[in-house]
Amino acid sequence: MNTSINNFIFETAVISPINDIIVKLKQKEFRDCDIAWLNGKLKSFTDLALQTLGKEIEVGDAVGGVMNDHNRNRFIGHFTTLLDYFKSFN
pLDDT-derived band of residue 1, with 50, 70 and 90 as boundaries? Predict the structure, then answer.
């Protein structure tokens, strides 16, 4: 497959969704009821990152409780780390 197509797919399936989550977290668009969904996305992207490293590690829920500034910043930190990692492939 063409490298440009692969890059487009990677950007569309991985980079853009993570970036979108970070933007929405910074704009405080997520609520308490979204924590489970965010944890699920975090786990999915973390599992993908681990696969690229050839590692198999069980990762539990990263953030619990309510969507306060502390937990929002934890999510932002986790997703930013993943975004930086995946951007290093391009």
Answer: low
Q: How many CB atoms lie within 10 A of CB 47?
A: 14
pLDDT at 55: 87
73 vs 80: CA distance, rounded Å? 10
CA distance 24 to 29: 5
Contact 12, 35 (CB under 8 A): no
Q: What is the extent of the structural domain holding 65? A: 3-87
The total domain count for the chain is: 1
Whole-number Å distance between alpha carbons of 47 and 58: 8
Q: What is the pTM of this model?
A: 0.91
